[in-house]
Amino acid sequence: MASWQGKTEGQKKRQESGKLIERKKRGEHSFSSQHCLKTEVLGFEVDTVNSVQFSNHTGYAHWKGQVLNSDELHELYEGLKLNKVNQYDYVLTGYTRDTSFLAMVVDIVQELKQQNSNLVYVCDPVMGDKWNGEGSMYVPKDLLPVYRDKVVPVADIITPNQFEAELLTGRKIHTEKDALEVMDMLHAMGPETVVITSSDLQAPLGNDYLIALGSHRKTHADGTNMTQRIRVESPKVDAVFVGTGDLFAAMLLAWTHKHPNNLKVACEKTVSAMQHVLQRTIKSAKAQAGEGNKPNSAHLELRMVQSKKDIENPEIIVKATVL
């Protein structure tokens, strides 16, 4: 692992966690304003760059704020370089709406990897989702080729949902076999670890469960591959949350760091922690809304601070199946 800024020589030995630069959207009155919490409580030093700074997340009817452009991102990074504090173990990226900004992210990741060959880049390729069986993009369509041709090839871990995995590969997923083949296609593009965070596939446990699928491929020195594949079935929650993708990617980063060769355990801890957060959130939301009333966006803000212990040490309530 790379040395941490400001550590003594004794502290520069292998750390429990690493230093992370995280580029995320930020809404001041929202879950996203707490986006560092999940990685910091798991032992990471986090430097955050906000790709957008909004009054609140876009799940509300209205929002105000600013969008960071590629020149502004470059200026921020140059400041880190001038002070020689641009030494990182991980990069985590999520939502953005601008192709030039995304291309600048790739340039920065490549530069960081040149100075630390062990740096791990975790990318949540936020582009769209499926609603009632139909998929649609909620970012400009010209981001797709940038993600596909530039971002994914430099990423080590990617966390698309089913629709985003289909966009990146140009292949539809109708069965679990299709999903496994799509993950193989994504491996071939670059990432060692691929997790399809949600899908509309039929869960063996029944209609009340949501399927996520993961694949970790390690290439040995002789050129042979070893692949671990898993399925995770988690209970569906009857509510619409904002920030679950951010939460999943950040916790997967942390737990794959702690369990680098065991995707099963990393995903079990990630999904179990998410279930604790979501269940606490929906319970609180219903109480705030009052009996007989539907919770609104404000009620459904993820209860991150209240879930700190579950993020740090989640009770495993969701088990993964090795495929």
UniProtKB/TrEMBL annotation:
The keyword tRNA processing is assigned to this record: no
UniProt key word Acetylation: yes
Substrates-to-products reaction catalysed: pyridoxal + ATP = pyridoxal 5'-phosphate + ADP + H(+); pyridoxine + ATP = pyridoxine 5'-phosphate + ADP + H(+); pyridoxamine + ATP = pyridoxamine 5'-phosphate + ADP + H(+)
CDD domains associated with the record: pyridoxal_pyridoxamine_kinase
Pathway(s): Cofactor metabolism; pyridoxal 5'-phosphate salvage; pyridoxine 5'-phosphate from pyridoxine: step 1/1; Cofactor metabolism; pyridoxal 5'-phosphate salvage; pyridoxamine 5'-phosphate from pyridoxamine: step 1/1; Cofactor metabolism; pyridoxal 5'-phosphate salvage; pyridoxal 5'-phosphate from pyridoxal: step 1/1
EC class (word): transferase
Gene Ontology cellular-component terms listed: cytosol; nucleoplasm
SUPFAM superfamilies linked: Ribokinase-like
Cited function: Catalyzes the phosphorylation of the dietary vitamin B6 vitamers pyridoxal (PL), pyridoxine (PN) and pyridoxamine (PM) to form pyridoxal 5'-phosphate (PLP), pyridoxine 5'-phosphate (PNP) and pyridoxamine 5'-phosphate (PMP), respectively. PLP is the active form of vitamin B6, and acts as a cofactor for over 140 different enzymatic reactions.
Family affiliation: Belongs to the pyridoxine kinase family.
Protein name: Pyridoxal kinase
Lineage, top ranks: Eukaryota, Metazoa, Chordata, Craniata, Vertebrata
